[in-house]
Amino acid sequence: MNFEHLIQINDPENPLVEPLTREQLWHGLLHRVENPIPFLPGLESCTILERQANELLRELDFGPATIQDRVTLVETDWVRFAIVPSETHAGGSLMISIEEPEPGFLFLRFAYQTTLASNPNSEERAYIEYVKSAYHQSDVDCVRLIRSLAAGILPQ
Question: CA–CA distance from 18 to each of 21, 76, 84 (Å)?
């Protein structure tokens, strides 16, 4: 299954939305890379196993399950999380891109690639819609956490 959506970060036409700079948004995404615990419910710990200039290998401990993911990034542009396939997990990826179609208008694009069926039956379709909804809510929470970080409120 491939699934993607946009979340608008800045809207210069709406004074109720506190604007963020591209750098603040990038800093929030880096925080998600270095300390994913506030961003991933159920995550107990994260260990960085390897670090290179624009790539990290992490081990994510969710208690009953442990997975590894490889994080690649291009500064102030995008970050990609790719789960390393294993006996217990088939893999998948999430790419988060910063988009700025016009000055002052910032968006985050969340693009998921999973091993879920491409042509699902009706039962699988309901499950896939549930997964999409969970991904979307997680991404809304991610933006909320990034806004908190930009405001100087550090998540636990």
Answer: 10, 20, 37
Closest C-alpha to 22, from 13, 39, 10: 10
**H-helix or E-strand containing 12?**
none
**Pair 58, 71: CB distance under 8 Å:** yes
2: left (phi over 0), alpha (psi -120 to 50) or beta: beta
Task: Give the integer Cα–Cα distance in Å for 12 and 106.
Answer: 10
| pLDDT digit string, tens, across residues 49-101 | 999 999 999 999 999 999 999 999 999 999 999 999 988 888 999 999 999 99
Helix (H) or strand (E) holding 142: helix 122-150
- The verdict on residue 74 lying in a domain is yes
Q: Which helix (H) or strand (E) holds 31?
A: helix 22-34
Domain coverage including residue 131: 2-150
CATH no. for residue 103? 3.30.530.20
- 3-state SS class at 74: strand
Burial of 37 (0-12, 13-18, 19+ CB in 10 A): middle
How many structural domains comprise the chain? 1
